[in-house]
Design a protein that fits this description.
The chain has 8 helices and 21 strands. The protein has helices at 13-24, 49-57, 61-65, 106-116, 172-176, 245-252, 308-327, 338-342, and strands at 4-9, 29-33, 46-48, 68-70, 73-78, 83-88, 101-104, 123-127, 129-136, 141-149, 152-165, 181-183, 188-196, 207-211, 217-221, 226-232, 269-278, 281-283, 287-288, 291-293, 299-300. Strand 19 and strand 20 form a beta hairpin. The protein is of the alpha+beta class. Strands 1, 2, 8, 9, 10, 11, 19 and 20 form an 8-stranded mixed beta sheet that branches. Helix 1 runs parallel beside helix 4 (106-116) and helix 1 runs parallel beside helix 7 (308-327). It is globular and about 65 Å long.
């Protein structure tokens, strides 16, 4: 008999949702995550109504709503400040029963997803551990689990019926399975900025895509007074200099009027400024026998439609009910092969 029904490698939003879905079904689940704490800088900032339905199914929608703000409007402007297009998001049909666009605080959302697991005695979470090796057998997977903190490193072996690789863009699970990725050739460096304004400043909550060919930019008021900026990095930019606070505030300055006439380049607190290379990648397959890839381990998308995290949560929603049904002998094992084609 296997030690676990499912082992989940990675405890970001995708892994945490999968753990909640499996825990609710009583599956013996182990989650391993190398980091000891939740990363305290926002990364994803948007999810849609379909994802909120998943949170509702997990009975976590009330808590998550507290760290979420609905999208108000989305506008496209050009370098001459002409209004190209604007959509009032509040009037769109709510086909999922929830707002179509929701901006949120990722560290707070992850905390609620993890706290949800306290309801399930069948789920064990081990921080500071990672899957360092795997070997598939006919009816189970043998995993090497390494605990490494400081100078101490210990390893143990566990067996599981299925392994979910939710371990991000640099997935060790994907590498261990030698699964290649299709590159959709959308590699672009962008400066990602998180900026926090005082709570007493009222801001325009419209999101903007600034279609200026000299430097395209994205401006998104998120939950509370957290503002996400993204600026395209040009070929002649100094990558180190562009991350410096003075340069970041210079880039924000021409667009501050869109948020409030009372803002100056010195306003607010800079939480992060970092150049990232945006990618569009899809793994050749999301399944190798009893091992599955979910989230960024399976696919990466540029952030402009806010669907990166959403896609990972949909992976978990698609796969977990199938695994539960197969383990409960309700469905044939072949059902699991639909995961890659459907996703």
């Amino acid at each position: 008999m296997s030690d676990y029904d499912v082992v989940i490698a990675g405890f970001g939003p995708t892994g945490a949702v999968a753990a909640n879905l499996l825990g609710a079904a009583g599956m013996r689940t182990l989650v391993v995550e190398p980091s000891l704490t939740i990363f305290d800088i926002p990364r994803a900032v948007h999810f849609d109504g379909e994802v909120m339905r998943t949170f509702q199914a997990l009975d976590l929608h009330t808590q998550i709503s507290e760290v979420t703000a609905p999208g108000v409007a989305l506008g496209f402007t050009n370098g001459r400040n002409w209004n190209l297009f604007e959509q009032d998001l509040s009037i769109l049909p709510r086909s999922q029963g929830w707002d179509n666009s929701n901006f949120f605080n990722q560290p707070a959302l992850e905390a609620h997803l993890r706290a949800g697991l306290d309801r399930y005695a069948s789920v064990t979470c081990c921080l500071g551990e990672r899957v360092s090796g795997l070997k598939q057998a006919r009816d189970h997977v043998v995993l090497d689990i390494t605990h490494s903190q400081g100078d101490d490193a210990t390893s143990r072996q566990v067996s599981t019926k299925y392994l979910l690789g939710c371990d991000g863009a640099s997935s060790t699970i994907r590498s261990a399975l030698a699964i290649n990725q299709q590159d959709l050739n959308c590699d672009e460096p962008w400066l990602v900025v998180d900026w926090l304004l005082p709570k007493d400043i009222e801001i325009n909550r419209r999101a903007y895509q600034i279609c200026d060919p000299r430097r395209p930019a994205t401006l998104v008021p998120c939950e509370g007074n957290h503002i996400r900026w993204e600026f395209m990095v040009n070929a002649d930019d100094d990558l180190q200099a562009i991350e410096k606070e003075a340069k970041v505030r210079q880039l924000m300055a021409p667009h501050l009027h869109r948020l409030s006439p009372d803002l100056t380049p010195d306003s607010g607190h800079l939480l992060r400024s970092k150049v990232y290379n945006f990618h569009a990648l899809v793994a050749d397959t999301f399944q190798r026998d009893r091992v599955f890839l979910l989230g960024d381990a399976a696919h990466q998308t540029p952030p402009f439609l806010g669907q990166g995290m959403c896609a990972g949560i949909r992976d978990a929603e698609n796969l977990c009910w199938k695994i539960v049904g197969v383990l409960n002998n309700k469905y044939p094992t072949g059902l699991l092969s639909t995961y890659t084609t459907e996703r």
